[in-house]
Design goal:
- With 298 residues, the protein is an alpha/beta fold.
- 51% of the residues lie in helices and 13% in strands.
- The protein is globular.
Length: 298
């Protein structure tokens, strides 16, 4: 299949490599031409403008957008809408808010275009093991693209999960669950690290991968990280979030669904970004006021 691909970051470039490796024809464009030239050397066809990319695709065209969610994706889709023709399909593979997908689906439909939202999980390992593909959109827009999705996914790792926005909705909840799993591993290791036993945490994480009910791919990655740097030297205890955890919590609130684990794991990430906690100072001061408990001074 021939497809246009916009965005050659860490995931985007590897996705193009996986497609090319399986025999698909990919016309690739990146804002910085160096990355375009790099992927051309690996078998993709390059384009150095969106106009050139569209011109190199036969109709009906399919263009995959793999740029940061939010303003960058919004601007890219707006540009492509002016260049594509009725019957062409836009695929958003970033971590977009599903509400934006629903809005964009209606917007591009006014121009006779199709819109597909692809939730993608797999990170930098996807080139080797494949990407879990959670795809949303109208059936007649998704079906012609399934050769692409099945190449990118491992066996049984692709599904058309529902209508417009459903792909990114499922990916959003997936990432919320990921927050909770990661936080549980982090808390468990911190307890053992602080305990009275001199434990080899890498060895423990290693054996947990076999037969344990907590084994997972995240645990495999944790074992690798501990093996390389058991004290995590040089890593600041500052944890980012890319938005999906917040959206998952908001969705739980909107539908009156209790989600304490995901909510608290999100809050833990916020706490990691504070050099000093004003709230903790409030608690210490109150304990001193009502009970005369000692406070530590800076």
């Amino acid at each position: 299949m021939r497809i246009g691909f916009v965005g050659l970051g860490r995931m985007g470039a590897n996705m193009v490599r996986r497609l090319v490796r399986d025999g698909h024809e990919v016309v690739a464009y990146n804002r910085t031409p160096e990355k375009t030239r790099e992927i051309m050397a690996e078998g993709a066809e390059g384009a150095f403008s969106l106009e050139e990319l569209v011109a190199k695709l036969p109709g009906p065209r399919a263009v995959w957008v793999m740029v940061p969610a939010g303003d960058a994706t919004e601007a890219m889709i707006a540009q492509l809408m002016e260049l594509l023709a009725a019957g062409d399909t836009l695929i958003d593979g970033g971590n977009t808010n599903f509400h934006d997908d629903v809005r964009r689906h209606a917007l591009v439909a006014e121009k006779g275009l199709r819109y597909v939202d692809a939730g993608v999980s797999g990170g930098i390992w996807g080139l080797q093991v494949g990407y879990c593909m959670m795809v949303g959109g109208d059936r007649d827009a998704v079906e012609p693209l399934e050769p692409i999705f099945r190449t990118l996914a491992p066996p049984d790792g692709y599904a058309h999960v529902g209508g417009p926005g459903a792909g990114h909705y499922v990916k959003m909840v997936h990432n919320g669950i990921e927050y909770g799993l990661m936080q549980a591993y982090a808390e468990g290791l911190e307890i053992m690290h602080a305990g009275d036993y001199d434990l080899d945490l890498a060895k423990i994480a290693g054996i947990w991968r076999y037969g344990s009910v907590v084994r997972s791919w995240l645990l495999d990655l944790l074992y690798d990280a501990l093996s390389k740097n058991p004290d995590f030297e040089g890593i600041k205890d500052w944890v980012a979030d890319s938005g999906e955890g917040r959206w998952t919590v908001q969705e739980a609130i909107d539908h009156d669904v209790p989600a304490p684990v995901i909510t608290l794991s999100l809050q833990a990430r916020f706490r990691s970004r504070q050099d000093a906690s004003y709230g903790a100072k409030v608690l210490a001061a109150l304990r001193n006021e009502f009970g005369g408990h000692a406070v530590k001074t800076e």
